[in-house]
Amino acid sequence: MSDKITCEVDKNILDMLLKGLNTLRGGPAMDEEEWEEVGGRKKRRGRGAGPTQPKAAADVPEVDNTDLNGVINKLLDTVNTLLEKRQLDLEARERQDIKIEKMEARIELQSVENDETKQRSLKGNIIISSPPGQDKLRILKSKEDLEKEEYCVTDYAIEIMQLKYGVSVPKSDIQACHFLPNKSILLRIWNRVPGSAWSILIDKIKKGGNKEYHVYGNFMLTARRNAISYHLRTLKKSGKISKLYTTESGVLSFKIKDDRDKIRVTYVSNKKGDDPRTLSIKEIDSLL
Length: 288
Prior knowledge:
Blueprint: H1 11-24, E1 35-38, E2 41-44, H2 68-121, E3 125-129, H3 143-149, H4 153-165, E4 174-179, E5 185-189, H5 197-207, E6 216-219, H6 223-237, E7 243-246, E8 252-255, E9 263-264, H7 281-287
Antiparallel strand pairs: 1-2, 3-5, 3-6, 4-5, 7-8, 8-9
Helix pairs in contact: 1-2
């Protein structure tokens, strides 16, 4: 019994199939207006003639319309071509993904470097605030209050540092002092040499100062680090971490438990030679 199967094939259907296969293989595609419905199927319309004019021999390759093997071979050839193209597309996509990953890493590194540079420029800045709490009222005077009293904001900031931390900051050490839009006060100290009021003040701020006086002095942070600091304070209030630390240089770190080592969050490298990183809030949570 022969393995060869032959049958009559509609020439129009075969022509349409072959044209479609050629298009899939990367040949010229046919516009939608080149097709028309014939007997419930789409058939290519002849050019420059009526809708049922047959195509020229140059348009469609001559194929024996009883040779199913020839059609199957055409299909197989097209499938192989498509698989090759698919593999090439996958390889191109992988190369593109690698490029994107490297680009994102460079952008993140630049972002970390820019944040560190900006933080260094904020050294010497102290934000004085008096946030209201459940049993505590805001006691920090407003700009309007000081104007009514004809009291200089710089003198007021010096008074606060004395009452809160017991440190007398010379007026000559202060570069700038003014109210911020959120009604806190920015105090910028330029004289930060060893033995200066600043060198004493930073240690007092880290220890907390007079807890009965509901005014706080915090080292100024970038927006990125301020968001991280707020999240760490939230974690401490909820008991998920035991301590958090902020230095005058804007370095943030925390302890999960008192007997654990500090975990540095900002501008840190895990291994020698690694690019410095600042952990995201999601990464911090994953450590808990």
